[in-house]
């Protein structure tokens, strides 16, 4: 389905759900639709990123196919997300070519590998690739420190810049329906929801699918954060303390990297396993396959990173390091167009949700002036005049 068709069908499904409301409390989507009487195109972009594909609702729903209503929120929202990644990503032409394509990561990895191999051979020859390098600065005998810093610095700017542009476009759509301001406490609440992966942990009616996904998501999320901390610490060691890699196994850089890598290995494999077990009937369609591609790409980065650690004192290190850096380069290059970007849009949707939730709480706590109270107040003021 095209984006327009998905949006039209989404509005129809949300009207049915708003009348039914059986799934109230399952996730943030259900409260967000309760606060609306009608749905705009931009509301659909908002709701799509509030859904995290737990599939609670579709397991409970009596109106899924073969019922004529054909209700299936996770499938609808995953299709929408996939189209929205293309719509908000920058540059648009590249986004159309790369987003939603399962083989993008592999193609970019192979191209990166060929390019990196050419640089290794061009600068250090076969000795750089195949010799046994040990001691401080061993990695830089394969690819120079300056080359690595410029290349991966540029890729970092590319993916963070891509995320920032996509986030600005998405936020522009989210805030266009309201004049209410976002307060710091809305951001705090949204951050707490994001860190706890709230709504992802309810017991599912089918095989504890949802609760497993919560733990695997946690493992990937916190594993990635630990690996990011390890890389940042390595930069401090290298540029501030002037101590070059590789570091001993007990060094915090390596320890953080190992724990983070193991987290990603467990989380990404677990997510692939739960996806394969959950079957296709209720699956999220296109987004589900790009989710699988993303899990595989994380898994490859983690596995090759672990292999670098295991074989860093052997002559295989040069080849393994080149393969690992190719997977990292591909992950960075495709980050604005892959499922990776969901984390940015979901966080912004949660900020908007926290803002709406606060507004709803304030409205509920506001003292109500009923017609009877107005009448009584009139009577009292008349009596006072007499
Ligand atoms: S998903 Fe089905 S059961 Fe849940 S609110 Fe919508 S129509 Fe009702
Ligand atoms: S699949 Fe889960 S997160 Fe998505 S709308 Fe249904 S209950 Fe909410």
Automatic annotation (TrEMBL):
Keywords, sorted A to Z: Iron, Iron-sulfur, Membrane, Metal-binding, Transmembrane, Transmembrane helix
Membrane-spanning parts: 105-130, 150-171, 219-241, 253-273, 293-311, 317-337
Single Gene Ontology MF annotation: iron-sulfur cluster binding
Name of the protein described by the UniProt record: Tricarballylate utilization 4Fe-4S protein TcuB
Gene it is expressed from: tcuB
